[in-house]
UniProtKB/TrEMBL annotation:
UniProt superkingdom: Bacteria
Chain ranges passing through the membrane: 46-64
Keywords per UniProt: Membrane, Transmembrane, Transmembrane helix
Name of the molecule in the record: DUF2809 domain-containing protein
């Protein structure tokens, strides 16, 4: 559990698989999203959205890690 918390749940469960999928099939994903949303989606926009999602997940993971460390500090005191 400590290893998962150190790596980050959001990173491990969301960002890594999504990044691998986007790296493998960028044009296919862009075309599918364009069709689904009804507007043009470029590979650059996909990259930007992925970076924003990564930043959000990093913020969540850091918050989880910070709360865990604070809890551990209170328990050990």
């Amino acid at each position: 559990m400590a290893l998962l918390r150190a790596i980050g749940f959001c990173f491990l469960l969301l960002v890594a698989p999504l990044g691998a999928f986007l790296a493998s099939y960028p044009q296919l994903v862009a075309d599918a999203l364009s069709q689904w949303l009804g507007t043009a989606v470029s590979r650059g926009q996909l990259g930007l959205a992925f970076m924003l999602l990564t930043a959000l997940c990093l913020r969540i993971d850091l918050g989880v890690r910070r709360r865990y460390q604070q809890r551990q500090a209170l328990v050990s005191s």
